[in-house]
Amino acid sequence: MSLMSIALRIAEESTEFDPNTVSPGVEGFIFTGLMAAGIIGLGFLLVSRLRRNAYRHEVRAQIAEELGETGADAEPRS
Fold it and tell me: Distance between CA 18 and CA 15 in Å, rounded?
């Protein structure tokens, strides 16, 4: 065994486990809640931007279709 492993084993045996010192506490709870709220907010923004982009694509396709129909039906001017 190396000196490092002996020192780690002694430190492990001498310390007692206290669940209060390893819990995230109130700060961790608040941080996790804020992160969750932020991710949900970003999700709503993403969905709205995707929907807006899809609507724009549909409208542009309709406009292109209408312009194509009127261009084919119109007689050339002399």
Answer: 9
Task: Determine the Cα–Cα distance for residues 61 and 66; give it in Å rounded to an integer.
Answer: 9
Cα–Cα distance, 74 to 78 (Å, whole number):
12
For the segment 3-38, what is each residue's pLDDT rounded down to a tens digit?
A: 888 888 887 777 676 767 778 889 999 999 999 999
Separation of alpha carbons 38 and 32, rounded Å:
10
User: What is the Cα–Cα distance from 62 to 32, expressed in whole angstroms?
Assistant: 45
Listed in order, strand segments (DSSP E) in the chain are: none
**Model confidence pTM above 0.70:** no
Report angle CA 31, 37, 43 to the nearest 5 degrees: 135
